[in-house]
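Section 3.1: Structural characterization of target chains.
Under the original work plan, the team committed to producing a structural model for every single-chain target entering the pipeline before any wet-lab resources were allocated. The record below documents one such target. The sequence was received from the expression subgroup and is listed exactly as submitted; it comprises 402 residues.
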Amino acid sequence: MKQNLKFISKMICDAYNIPIIGFDNENGHIFSSGTHLKHPLFHSIEESINRLIQPEDQQNVPLIKTTNYLETFIVFHVSSTTTMIIGPFSSYEVTENMIYGIIHDYQISSAYQEELFFYYSQLEWLNQKKILSLCFLTYYLIYQEPLEEELVTSQLKNSEEIESSHIEQLVRHRRLDASFHMDYRVEQKIWQCVKEGDKEKLLEHLDTVKIEGAGLLSKKSHLRNIKNQTIISIALATRAAMDGGLYPEIAYTMSDVTIQKVEETSELQKIYLIGDDFLFSLVDRVKESRENSYSKAVQVCKNYIFNHIFEQISIKDLADMVHLNAVYLSQLFKKETNKPLGKYIQDEKIKEAQKLLIQSDHSVANICMLLHFNDQSYFSNIFKKYTGLSPSQYRKNPAFIN
């Protein structure tokens, strides 16, 4: 196995010009191909690698990992004792302003500035298709059998709301914050897709967006710059959604909640996930609003459930709010939505729990309490019934359920 891995690593390194290192979990470094790029902020290659390996990592599957320092790696636990690290490389061009932002955000001494600029200038730049191809090729060369696409593409899924037929088109860094200072026509096409609730066309247009086209909204902090761009994107997308017919209270509430999440996190990847989740959830809601003509009572109930998802919600309270009999309201809701009202409330809470597990550090017990499930065991059973995984399993390996 060791000799085969050395040969495979050399072939991949020669083809992609990306360094590869083989790491024995017991004895340390065992082989390398190419010139390994040592990050200036880490004292050794081993120290740099150790930050990438987590106890909960899945075995025998290429894992795409992006650091807060804007590097991307493919971590491949080939066996229980051997790990292959492909990288570092970048999934987009790292600009000077981004590097200055990193220096500011992490309070890095200016003495490292020249080394950091040199380090990032050496990184190869791979787009999503090349990253996926690299994963599939590496797996095939090692095991002589094709890798299930879902095992890799699922790592690029940003929201349980995104249909599986669209997942393979997504790039982790396709983010709407890149829309500033882009071609005006491209920008208008993106907002038109939001307005029309057209996710498929939206994905096509986002393919044309380049991260280096993003405007600089904070000269000192890269993190603040990304937050500012994301927040402005949220505002513009919210306006487009309302123009498309989305109920303003829903649009504004989604916007407020998302902006709060953006401000509360200091991890770049979480900001991208939060932004993408908002964008595609918004498009889904516009589409639903345009395709379904709900009665006023049902629409009011859906809006209330969305706005008060972290509160105790009863069918009786909803019925009182719309001045209808509880039994009649339940029948009306099921007739128009094909789902019982109680089941709809429960499903919406589980969807919110999925987001909290991915986007926050709340414990399962705390999420259960926040969503007013009185019993954690009952919550876990309902969650598993809905997703096929327990809350803890879902957090480690998110499953995106339509």
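Residues 292-402 form a domain with the Arc Repressor Mutant, subunit A fold (CATH 1.10.10.60).
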